[in-house]
């Protein structure tokens, strides 16, 4: 009977000794899962913000292509829509959005001076407008590929 109690006491001592490391391992596991969850939430929130910018850029280009000109106030709205680009993306995207804005302003200038142009100057003006519109078509076709690496949610 004493041997049986000693054996039970040994088991209790062993189990109580394993309890602390088991709790520590469980705590580490829970902390790691919370860290992964937080990391995924950050990715999701970043995706949401980036996707809004992406959609606004596409919408701006599409409006230019549909009308062949810049709507009144659209360039200012575009600047508002992309103000967070420098914080959400790298310099490549910031340069691309800046280039799109400059091209849009250039197109707007050509459209506004078209009324004052005549003859050869008018034809040059129209040709330059067409070149810029073709450039915007190329931008719209390639924008998904450029933004793909920023909008992927890898798991």
Describe this structure as you would to a colleague.
The chain is an all-alpha fold. It has helices at 2-67, 74-81, 85-88, 91-114, 119-151. Helix 1 runs antiparallel to helix 2, helix 1 (2-67) packs antiparallel against helix 5 and helix 4 (91-114) runs antiparallel to helix 5 (119-151). The two termini are 57 Å apart.
Layout: helices, strands, pairs:
Elements: H1 2-67, H2 74-81, H3 85-88, H4 91-114, H5 119-151
Helix pairs in contact: 1-2, 1-5, 4-5
Keywords:
155 residues, single chain, mainly alpha
Oligomeric description of these chains: single chain
- Overall pLDDT confidence: 86
Q: What string gives the helices and strands in order?
A: HHHHH
- Pairing-aware structural class of the strands and helices? mainly alpha
Question: How is this structure best summarized?
Answer:
The chain has helices at 2-67, 74-81, 85-88, 91-114, 119-151.
């Amino acid at each position: 009977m004493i041997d049986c109690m000693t054996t039970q006491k040994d088991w209790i001592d062993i189990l109580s000794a394993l309890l602390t490391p088991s709790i520590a391992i469980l705590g580490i596991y829970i902390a790691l899962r919370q860290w992964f969850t937080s990391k995924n939430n950050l990715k999701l929130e970043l995706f949401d913000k980036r996707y809004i910018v992406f959609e606004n850029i596409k919408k701006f280009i599409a409006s230019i292509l549909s009308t062949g000109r810049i709507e009144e106030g659209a360039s200012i709205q575009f600047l508002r829509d992309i103000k967070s680009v420098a914080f959400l993306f790298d310099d490549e995207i910031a340069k691309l959005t800046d280039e799109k804005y400059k091209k849009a302003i250039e197109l707007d200038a050509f459209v506004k001076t078209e009324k004052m142009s005549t003859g050869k100057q008018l034809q040059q003006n129209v040709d330059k407008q067409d070149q810029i519109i073709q450039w915007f078509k190329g931008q719209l076709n390639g924008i998904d590929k450029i933004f793909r690496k920023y909008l992927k949610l890898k798991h």
